[in-house]
Amino acid sequence: MYQDTISTQPVIAAERFTLRPLRRSDAGLIALYSADKRVAEGTRAIPHPLPPGTAENFIARAQAEDRVEDVWALDGSAHGLAELLGVVSLTHLEGDQSEVGYWIGPGFWNTGMASQAVAALIAANPHNSRTLFAEVFQDDPASARVLTNCGFDYLGDAESWSLARGRHVPTWTYLRKM
């Protein structure tokens, strides 16, 4: 596990939004989107139903000095879109490796937002990673396309616990050399 304090997260420009660190004011939209069963079941860590305070706790962890995960909001407000379209994250792993995670609000699905967010994160490479990993549930081929569109290669099958589903779910694991 990564032990050092993580430096301040950069703001990263993308074509239709800006990736910026989370703020407390994001709690309402995070709660709205992540309370959607389809969003929760697409992640490992979002419970369903969403308990009160979950979004606020998520933001507090994302802002903590000793965090191992950097989380960015996809902020479309400068482009006439919502202030929060979804989130993308990088979690420090051993060595020069990080894991990419993301979810997009359902109203923005199938618009290329996730691919654009992951591509912007890869281009910026704020963790100076040599290798990026990601996994998606096998019943979510759209998320797998996001990764392959961004240059990730299929590594293998596995399974991961889904809090919302209350069970292990088959996954596809991907790797991208930087």
From TrEMBL:
InterPro entries: Acyl_CoA_acyltransferase, GNAT_dom. The keyword Transferase applies. Keywords: Transferase. GO terms for molecular function: acyltransferase activity, transferring groups other than amino-acyl groups. Residues 16-152 form the N-acetyltransferase domain. It comes from the Bacteria. This is Acetyltransferase.
